[in-house]
Amino acid sequence: MPHYALPHEIMYHTGLSREMTEGARYALVPGDPGRVEGLAKALDEKASFVCSHRDFTTWKARVSGETVLVMSTGMGGPCVTFAVEELARLGVTSFIRVGTTGSIQEDLNLGDLVINKGAVRRDGASRAYAPLAYPAMADMRITLALEEAARELKVPCKTGISVSTDSFWPGQERYDSFSGYVRKNLQGSLAEYRALGCTNFEMENATLFTLTSVLGLSAGSLCGVVAKRTDSEAVAPKEVYELAEKRFHQVVKRALEMLIGHFMVTL
Ligand SMILES: O=P(O)(O)O[C@H]1O[C@H](CO)[C@@H](O)[C@H]1O
Ligand SMILES: O=c1cc[nH]c(=O)[nH]1
């Protein structure tokens, strides 16, 4: 029996209550709190601030007659568990991660978008919810809506499987860290994931996909490429992020319109 919050009950970490979220079923969940306002306003110019507590900054927007929350998760799997658990208690059923990522395939360029249909569970947090043999899979309808929106808007985009890590440096086989050391078991891991056809490194999909599946919820993920790891370990300049941001704003808005229009009853 799901444990929904009472109308005035304030969630301890996100600071949200059911009154504040107005029955929202959809939440866009970027990692960065600094991305929330722009994303909310791209959905709806009248979007408004709801609350900010710890890593979790929340705005609300209206899309096709529905309230949509935009809430940051902070970085990494543990933060995602707070966001999913507390938003679920407030009635949110569908989550779309809107993030940044490092591509590991040659044909994914800086500023392109990646839609993730699954994730390699190199996180720790999802293991509290399901054994490692359990797949981290995105919801098919959200994934299809994101793909269709990207196609319609002619945005360069590829669908694939991300590798979700708990560490930005050794976990993603980066040598430009303080010590420069990558443990032996992770040396060569980037080449191996590339050979396995994985598309990108990021840090939240595995936890998001596993939790939402286990809890009977839905999730999708759309990320902008800000590092092209086949060329360099560096994160690209601001202009690249701004190009990716413009693209993921357009795509996620169109995808939401499709989802709310077509899948309203089932999601
Ligand atoms: O831009 P966000 O959504 O935070 O996503 C990516 O950026 C952070 C690392 O720079 C990690 O959280 C990673 O998953
Ligand atoms: O390379 C990158 C870029 C963004 N986010 C990541 O997790 N890795």
Compact description:
The chain is an alpha/beta fold. It has helices at 18-21, 36-43, 77-89, 140-152, 189-195, 205-214, 238-262; strands at 26-28, 48-53, 56-63, 66-71, 94-103, 113-122, 136-137, 157-165, 200-202, 218-228. It has a single domain, classed as Rossmann fold, CATH 3.40.50.1580.
Name a few traits of the molecule:
267 residues, Rossmann fold, five-stranded mixed β-barrel, 7 helices, single chain, binds uracil, binds 1-O-phosphono-alpha-D-ribofuranose
What CATH first level would be assigned?
Alpha Beta
Oligomer: single chain
Q: What percent strand?
A: 25-35%
The chain-level structural class is alpha/beta
| Structural domain count | 1
User: Mind telling me the C-alpha Rg?
Assistant: 18 Å
**Strand order across the largest sheet:** 5-9-8-6-10
Q: If you consult CATH, what is the topology? A: Rossmann fold
Description:
It catalyses: uridine + phosphate = alpha-D-ribose 1-phosphate + uracil. This is Uridine phosphorylase. Pfam families: PNP_UDP_1. Its EC number is 2.4.2.3. One of its GO terms (molecular function) is uridine phosphorylase activity. The chain is α/β, with parallel strands linked by helices. The protein has one domain (18-262): Nucleoside phosphorylase domain (Rossmann fold), CATH 3.40.50. 30% of the residues lie in helices and 25% in strands. The chain has helices at residues 18-21, 36-43, 77-89, 140-152, 189-195, 205-214, 238-262, and strands spanning 26-28, 48-53, 56-63, 66-71, 94-103, 113-122, 136-137, 157-165, 200-202, 218-228. A five-stranded mixed beta barrel has the order 5-9-8-6-10. α3 (77-89) packs parallel to α6 (205-214) and α4 crosses α7. The longest helix is centred in the C-terminal third of the chain and has 25 residues, at 238-262. The chain is globular and about 50 Å long. The mean pLDDT is 97. The site of 1-O-phosphono-alpha-D-ribofuranose has 10 residues, from β5.
